[in-house]
C-alpha cells in the first residue's frame, strides 16, 4: 500500500536518498506494475501488440559529424524476454559487415528520427536506441522497457501511439546530450508477419490437442515469469537505505571522472552490456554497458 507508493515516488522527502530516487524510469515503471498487481492481480491475458515504428523528436549530441555536435548515427533494437528479435541495422550487422557510413547520419538540420520496425511483441519488451560510433563501439543512447499487458492505451485495431517524454526514457532522462523537450513515440498497429512453414501434421486431432496444451504452458510460463519479476522489483528496491546512499555516492564519484558514465543515467545500479546477443532482461535485471 503506502509503503510501495512511497518507494515509487522519487520526490518523497527523507533525510537520506530514497530508493526511488536511484531508480531509472523502467524500474519505476515496473514498480507501478507491481502496485497494480497487488490491487488487481495479474492481467487475464498477455497482450500482443504490433510495433510499427519508432519516432524520435529531437537529435541528441553524439558528435557523429565533426562540424556538428548535434549529430548521431542511430539504430533501434527490439528485445523480447531478453532476446533480440529485431534491429534496424538489418541482418548484415550480425556478420560484421556494417560501417558507420551504412547508417544514416542525422544532424542539426533534422528535427526527427524515424525507424521502421514492423514486428509483433508480447510480454516483457525493451526498445533500445544506439549510436553506431564504429564497428566495435556502440553507445546506448536511450532505452524503454515495458510489459505489453500493462499498456492501457487502445485504438481502432490496436492502433495507437505511446508518447514518451525524456523523463520516461532510461539513459536519456539524465543525459545532457538530449534536449529537455526530446520525445520518443512508439507507434503500434497491425503488423503482418510472414508465417513460418510448418510440417504437415500426421494427425490433425493430435495436432490440435498439442497446440492447445502448448498455449496453456506458454500462458502459465508468462504468468510465472511476470509474477516472479514483479516480486523481484520489491526485493531490489527495499534494500538498506545506507547501501543505496553509498551506491549513489559511488556513482557520483565515477560520473565526475568519466563523461560516458555520466551519460548512461544508470547511477551505479545498472551496467550496460555492449553485446547485441546479450541476455537483456527488458525490465529490471537488464545489465547494460556502453563499453
- Number of contiguous helices: 5
Largest sheet properties: 4 strands, antiparallel
Average pLDDT rating: 74
SSE string, helix = H, strand = E? HHEEEEEEEEHHH
Per DSSP, what share of the residues sits in E-state strands of 2 or more residues?
Answer: 15-25%
| Tally of DSSP β-strands | 8
| Residues in helices, as a percent range | 25-40%
Distance between the termini: 39 Å
Structural description of this entry:
- The relative contact order is 0.19.
- The model is unreliable at 205-209 and 254-291 (pLDDT under 50).
- Helix 1 packs antiparallel against helix 2 (25-40) and helix 2 (25-40) packs across helix 3 (204-237).
- The chain contains five helices and eight strands; from the N terminus they run H-H-E-E-E-E-E-E-E-E-H-H-H.
- The protein is an alpha+beta fold and 291 residues long.
- The protein is globular, with a radius of gyration of 20 Å.
- 27% of the residues lie in helices and 23% in strands.
- It has helices spanning 2-8, 25-40, 204-237, 241-257, 259-264; strands at 48-57, 74-80, 83-87, 112-122, 124-134, 137-147, 160-165, 183-188.
- The strands form two sheets. A four-stranded antiparallel sheet has the order 4-1-8-7, with no helix packed on it. A four-stranded antiparallel sheet has the order 3-2-5-6.
